[in-house]
């Protein structure tokens, strides 16, 4: 016997032993008591068996079976570890997505008014111009400026001025179509891109905006007016040239007294059809 005593004495792992063997177990042969000659023969036979032959006999008749039990504690420790790693990975991925989303929003949003910034509104305008060239889709442009806004800052301070800009931006957002893009061009100037409508519908929308602004009671007891330049993208002009023409219309509205709408000069009366009278708003106070 070699393996059985060795396992019993030295093995420290998980071992199930159904019976323990005597370390000094010797091979023995049983005979009848009334047959002494036969017993003598077997004793001589056993004494002449070599050690290797004895080990073979032991291995044939005495089996040692190793049975490893299932460690549920180790299993659950591993599962908890895996779950913790997966949960932390998902949490990290979610936070990373939220962070990237916030960064994307910051990159295209004006920090004060939460409207699109100059970069984003220019990008939208370029996309609409490409759609016009490829598919012939109309796109209206509204360029506007708050009248005498400098007086608000001078008389009430920049904090009040910022509040008015935010409130004015909300008036714009709440009175355009969902598909329209409203952006802060800079300072108190704003640009609205109106996909899939021509000059007539764009002017009607502008009239609505003008009336909403003129009749809105702003905070700090202020009422405001705005000047508008209105146009529609033209294929024969570049994006920059289209903006320049609408900007000239805005400048004309200011020159004619503010609080009014003017159409870009590259539109004739025939282009606009039977245009509705452009209202004028002069009801503002600081």
Please describe the structure with a list of short key phrases separated by commas or semicolons.
286 residues, alpha+beta, Alpha-Beta Plaits, 3 domains, five-stranded mixed β-sheet, 10 helices, 52% helix, rod-shaped
Description:
By secondary structure, the protein is α+β, with helices and mostly antiparallel strands. It folds into three domains: 3-61, no CATH class; 72-108; 110-272, Reverse transcriptase/Diguanylate cyclase domain (Alpha-Beta Plaits). Helices cover 52% and strands 11% of the residues. It is built from ten helices and five strands; from the N terminus they run H-H-H-H-H-E-H-H-E-E-H-E-H-E-H. The chain has helices at 3-10, 36-47, 51-61, 72-108, 118-135, 149-156, 158-173, 199-215, 239-255, 269-272, and strands at 139-146, 181-186, 189-195, 226-232, 261-263. The chain has a five-stranded mixed β-sheet, sandwiched between helices. Helix 9 (239-255) links the parallel strand 4 (226-232) and strand 5. Helix 6 (149-156) runs antiparallel to helix 7 (158-173).
